[in-house]
Amino acid sequence: MTHRSLLALAVLAVGLGGCRGMTSEAPPIHPNLNMDYVQRFEAQEANPFFADGAAMRTPVAGTVARGQLKTAENAPFEYGRTADGAYVPEVPIEVTPALLERGQERYNIYCTVCHGYAGDGRGIVAVGNGGLGYGFSVPSYHTDALRARPDGYIYDVIQNGINTMPSYGHEIAPADRWAVVAFVRALQRSQAGSAADLPETERERLSTANPNVRQN
Amino acid sequence: MPQLFPRRANALPTVTLFGALGGGLLLVAFVWYYLSPEFYEVGYAPEQPVPYSHALHAGQLGMDCRYCHNHVEQSPHANVPPTQTCMNCHGVVKTESAALLPVRESWATGVPIEWVKIHHVPDYAQFSHAAHVNVGVGCESCHGRIDQMEVVYQAEPLSMGWCLECHRQPEDHLRDPALVTQMGYLEQMTEADIQQNRERIEREGIKPPQNCSACHY
Q: Which residues of chain B register pLDDT less than 50?
């Protein structure tokens, strides 16, 4: 082999070996690491000092942060219950179209996975595994029993979970929980209503528009 | 007196000249290609303690990004979900899976799973997810098609030049804030969308900072 072909081979090796866009398990090379990882702990970093290795510590039970005191007055909003422990019958904040839209967005993020977009309990996790599901059933919202429940009950289920459904309190903030409650109520209305419940303009649109064409 | 330089030394000026020119070019090409974050930063895909697949969860199951990364709209730090979020489903789904053993262990012991962070910007550069997500920078713009990644890799260089590219010309990357988590949006972006973005930037006064104090404090 001549020197020339050896050189060509070397160039080819460097060229191919350094292809951009290839994935690698090797961490990026940062020549100057002075302040890449500074000596403080950021959110969700590891801290070898503690037994569980986490830098974020759990607050002591029973402590209250400023501005987060839960009182008898804000119990309906924070717990979905009145001061004497009963579920609040209606959403304790003003239900506006904006709140419903927010509720729909949050519902579609957190709830559709199991409950489905229509609230019929046919979300992807419930009907997955080739249609067999995973050994648990998701009830539909559209039953008389669930329609008759107070709003505070739905809030309580989001916050604390029920049966095999875990708590979503750590994922959804109180105001958003109420938005979801409002949207679930709207979903229930949508499945139990008739065309007569709709405003005149919407009814007209329904009767004339082709349902297969999205109206904008 | 013998000749000081042999005859073949006549080629020396030519070789020196072209060597200097070509060598310079080679050097520039080498640095430009190999010493850029596009080369040494993009494509980092470490092995994770749990073989988590975004392609399955976000792609096939169609879960919204915010189901797990739920603080991304309120916080500078887009959280890695706690074990609790995994157990929302995996308390009842695939409870016998060997791949999920570290998740169940973490749930039982309370010791967090040691995920390996891929997108690490040096600690002296502060970044806020909330500030970007709420004006409509899609997940896809910076993290690539996560919904198609079996194993997450870094898709963009996250270098300062790359950040500033978008801060100087944000209209090419913005979208309706309601669509931030939609994947595949960028491929369908049209000139009309960019024009709409320009109007929105004007209307809402979106001013991506280009000064030091924005990120480096």
A: none
B93 contacts A28? CB cut-off 8 A? no
**Rounded distance between C-alpha atoms, residue A131 and residue A134, angstroms:** 9
Beta bridge pairs of residue B151? none
Q: Residue A132: is its pLDDT beyond 50?
A: yes
- Asked if A43 lies within 8 A of B62 by C-beta distance, the reply is no
- The correct CATH number of A78-200 out of 1.10.760.10, 2.50.20.10, 2.60.120.200, 1.20.1260.10 is 1.10.760.10
Residues 6+ apart with CB under 8 A from B91: A164, A166
Domain parsing of chain B, residue ranges: 121-214
For chain A, the structural domain boundaries read 78-200
Are the beta carbons of A109 and B47 separated by less than 8 Å?
A: no
Please tell me whether the overall predicted TM-score, pTM, comes out greater than 0.80 for this model: yes
Q: How far is CA A183 from CA A70, A189, A214, B70, B181, in A?
A: 25, 10, 22, 19, 21
Structure token pair of residue B216: 């480096």
Give the separation between CA B61 and CA B52, rounded to whole angstroms. Answer: 13
Q: Enumerate residues 6+ apart whose C-beta is below 8 A from A117.
A: A108, A123
pLDDT tens per residue across span B89-146 = 898 888 888 999 999 999 999 999 999 999 999 999 999 999 999 999 999 999 999 9
CB proximity A128 to B under 8 Å: yes
What pLDDT is stored for residue A216 in this prediction? 45
Facing A171 at nearest CB: one of B45, B85, B109: B85
How far apart (Å, rounded) are the C-alpha atoms in residues A19 and B130? 34
